[in-house]
Design brief:
Keywords: Transferase. InterPro entries: Acetyltransferase_Butenolide, Acyl_CoA_acyltransferase, GNAT_dom. This protein has 5 helices and 5 strands. It has 154 residues and is an alpha+beta fold. Strands 1-2-3-4-5 form a 5-stranded mixed β-sheet. Helix 2 packs across helix 3. The termini are far apart.
């Protein structure tokens, strides 16, 4: 089955940067508590080194854009952690949503809010784990096949 149509253009993505009911988006680079980050990554099932708090804290500290989704009580519902120059390219490295909020538009909203912040001249690249590979095209994201990798040792 072919992928749905691609959602093209900054304006189309920026229009989707609306948090679902009961959620607020915020930029929290340099402010997000690493323990909160670890908890939502662990709960979401995203494969990251959650057993190594120092490494997780370093990952968070090195991010240039951290967009969070919080519920009305201030609890962390999701995070989009990115590395970007805000001018040409952005690598959305971690997108994780607490299971209680999955399927309610939080993930899509975090991607759209990230793109809105980046602006029209900046592309957003996301590398997916195998399981969500079928989810991103449903949002209108374009598949890419041109890429190369040098893997980490651990």
């Amino acid at each position: 089955m072919p992928d749905p149509p691609i959602l093209a253009g900054h304006a189309a993505w920026a229009a989707l940067a609306v948090p679902p009911p009961g959620i607020a988006f915020a930029r929290e680079e340099g402010r997000l508590d690493p323990a909160e980050f670890i908890a939502v990554v662990r709960a979401s099932g995203l494969n990251r080194p959650v057993g190594d708090p120092a490494r997780m804290a370093a990952m968070l500290a090195g991010a240039t854009l951290v967009v969070t989704a919080r519920d009305a009580a201030g609890r962390l519902a999701g995070v989009a952690r990115s590395i970007t120059d805000f001018a040409y390219c952005c690598y959305l490295s971690d997108l994780c949503v607490d299971p209680a909020w999955q399927g309610k538009g939080v993930g899509r909203g975090l991607i759209a809010e990230t793109k809105r912040i980046l602006g029209p001249g900046c592309m957003l690249l996301l590398l997916s784990a195998p399981e969500p590979m079928r989810w991103y095209p449903k949002l209108g994201m374009e598949r890419v096949a041109n890429g190369f990798i040098i893997r980490r040792d651990g």
